[in-house]
Amino acid sequence: MSKLIMLRHGQSLWNAANRFTGWVDVPLSERGRAEATIASCKIRDAGLTVDVCFTSMLIRAMETAIVVMTECDEIRQGKIPIVQHATDDPNWHGWNKYYSDPDKEIPIFPTPALDERYYGELQGLNKAETAEKYGKEQVHIWRRSFSEKPPGGESLEDTMHRSVPFFRDRILAHLKQGDDVLIAAHGNSLRSIIMYLDELSPDEVVKLELATGVPIVYDIDAEGQVVTKQILDS
Ligand SMILES: O=C(O)[C@@H](CO)OP(=O)(O)O
Known about the structure:
Radius of gyration: 18 Å
CATH class: Alpha Beta
Strand order of the largest sheet: 3-4-2-5-1-6-7
Bound molecules: 2-phosphoglyceric acid
CATH architecture: 3-Layer(aba) Sandwich
Distance between the termini: 24 Å
Function: Catalyzes the interconversion of 2-phosphoglycerate and 3-phosphoglycerate.
Strand content: 15-25%
Oligomer: single chain
Shape: globular
EC number: 5.4.2.11
CATH topology: Rossmann fold
Helix content: 25-40%
Structural class: alpha/beta
Catalytic activity: (2R)-2-phosphoglycerate = (2R)-3-phosphoglycerate
Pfam families: His_Phos_1 (PF00300)
C-alpha cells in the first residue's frame, strides 16, 4: 500500500489580502510558511515518509514542498530532495549533470499540470469587492462550479483536463510501484484530482473546500485504487 499526501500550499500574501491569484506567482506569507512547517510536523507525527514529490510551477507550491521536505528530517529518511527541472529547456543546462546515487535522493518534479486554475480577468481583484460588483452568487459560481469559467479563465473542468491525465500517467505510476508521494499544489488543481479520486459529481465538487496547509492522506493499492482517506486537520 502506498501513501499519497495531497497538500494545498500555505497561505500566500494574496490569500491574506483576499485577492484572486490563479497563475500570478505570489509567494507565501509568514503565516503560510508556518502552516507549511506545521504540515511537515503533522506528516512526520503520522509516521509518513516521502519518496517522490510533485509541485506546480508556482512558487507558493514549491516553497511549501521545500519546507515540508526539509523542516522535519524524518520525512526524507536521510535522502536529499533535488528539484528536477525540464531537460528540454534550452536556457537551463547542467542541473542533471552530477555524481550521485538516485537511491539517496528524493526527486521533486515541478509541472504546469498542477498549476492553480487560470483566473483570467479576475486575477489580482479583491474577492469581496468582486462579489459586491457582480453579486455573491455569480462569484461563487465562478469560484466553485465545475464547468462555468471565470471571465477569460479556466473552469475547474478545464483544470481537470490537465491535472488528471498527469496524475494518472505520472503520479499513479509511482504509487502503483509502492512509492509514497507528496503533491504540493493549489486549491483548484487539488480539488480536480480529489474529484477524480473520490468520484464526486459536478454538484458535489461545488461544496469541496480545501484549507491551506492541511495534509490529506490517501492509501492507494497496487491497482491504483483508493483504500482509505484521512485529513490531518487536528
Ligand atoms: O485565488 C485563487 O487562485 C484561488 C485559491 O486561493 O481562489 P479560490 O478560492 O477562489 O479558488
